[in-house]
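$ run holo --ligand "S-adenosyl-L-homocysteine" --emit tokens
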Amino acid sequence: MTGERNTPAFIALTARGAALARRLKAELGGEVHGLTGRVDDADIDFTDTGAHLRAHFAAGRPIVGICAAGILIRALAPLLADKAKEPPVVAVAEDGSAVVPLIGGHRGANALARQIAAILGGDAAITTASDLGTGVALDAPPPGWRLVAAPDLLKTALARMAAGSRPSVTVSPDLAEIDRDWLGPTAADEASPDADRLDIIIAETAAHAADPDALLYVPARHTIGVGCARHCDPAELAALAKQAIGEAGLRREAIAGVFSIDLKSDEAAMQALARELGVPARFYSAGELEAELPRLANPSEAVFREVGSHGVAEAAALAATGPDGQLVVPKMKTANATAAIARAPLPLGDQPGRPRGQLAVIGIGPGADDWRTPEASRLINEAQELVGYGHYLDLIAPLAAGKPTKTFPLGAEEERSRYALERAGEGRNVALISSGDAGIYAMGALVMELLDRPERENGVSAAARRVEVVNAPGITALQAASARIGALVGHDFCAISLSDLLTPRDDIIARVKAAAAGDFVIAFYNPVSARRRTLLNAARDILLGQRPAETPVLIAANLGRAEEKLTPRTLSSLNIDEVDMLTVVLIGSSQSRAFSTGDGQTRFYTPRGYAAKQSMVPTS
Ligand code: SAH
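-- output --
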């Protein structure tokens, strides 16, 4: 993903470590993160080392800890799960003498450790077998190359390479010119004894029969261009694509990507085809495709009238291969789909074209790093651009550092959502940030509303309506408040916003009465605003008519933030002067209880009725 930040976060726990981190930053980019109280002049400060490391690791950020390896291992061990996705982690001794790639050797840690060791004049302690001695990572070919091999075979090959065997490489004749220096020295003349053989084949055609005893590397230098009618059956497009790949005589791995016109970026069949082939789907505007007109084998006036370019499948395949590409399979078609294949001279390491735009609607939780989901952190890290209310972006400042951000004042919600959708509509990966859960009194519903509204009725553009929307849930204020005090929402509960900006006052009162009649635990969001302070009193009076004056009430302000304040009260002692805009007010039901623990804490909970159940006499 293009927005993903690949510069390291340098984590320093001492002034000496920070000095070393600054030296590294000067060469490698990134920022210096310093432990508050120990490091004065960091770019980003933190107080809880473990939480800070976990937040950045979960977000996919490369981490260089200027500290004991053990500190990094202990902090990150609970998160280790998926080798293919996790960012590299490197430990550097404070005096620069040792550099240890701990995690993600082949996802950048070895390379990063070597760079750091070169800067510091120390040693990179590389431990991944296939890199030893040769610097070649058989399991991580360069961009644009694909490895096809059974896992067992790869393991054996890695072991043989580590033991000093050099690969004997067979290249299919059509690829004789391709650059394979990345494989390092090969066993040119002296054939290895049979037991140590390490055979490698480089081929892209299906004709080249797979050898079960050889690693097969396929350069991905072909592109498949596709077109299809709206709601084309994914199976129809997939079958045609396979037929075209067969027509070209290629292995599937030879295809670098699926390409088409941007009008189709949300077409399920195209996204499904890209997933099936394990490649990205990329798109071009009609204007970009029209530039390919002189090279088209089958230009069509009808297609031009419909989409504004004389071809889609051929034009997209050619656009992706660049000016030196050639059409190898001209347009093939079925009732609802077209496909064509082109070839570039070199493997396509960088993906040409634009991806389908993505809008991640993210709830970051109340504020504390540990209360933000790994998914939310990852999506923030992957985003190319962040949009939100300034205060929320401040809460994720370390993750947002260095990313373009667009802030809007509180209240400009529609403008904010519209802006985020339109930016994503241009092919970007945008994150729209809300506090708590984005679907609860926040931007989630507004995004859906804008997508649901026709463009002429003040909806968003057609391009914006094609973006992929990902909704990442977060911990909402009521959950945070209930957890802090015990389990006040332990049984049936509801949430009511007391903001009468968008909801008529009478409706709010009607809902409070219904909640009172239903004996729900209630969470009041937006309990007061600068100019509206009467509804909370009215609500309290309604509730006092239905539940005891002693009902537990929690006034919870700034949850998960440094200024967090919990004020336990009862229904009759709920005083509106203790409530402000950054507060959620939880009111117990008639069943909610309060007690104190040995250490003097007040606890509120709402029983689920188990106690009553236990005393029941079984009837059968
Ligand atoms: N999407 C948010 C709610 C936004 S509405 C969520 O799911 O939590 C804004 C209201 O939410 C505030 O007036 C307050 O009532 C509540 N709120 C949001 N964050 C809070 C926090 N950290 N502490 C206390 N209340 C909070």
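-- notes --
The first strand starts at residue 9 and ends at 12.
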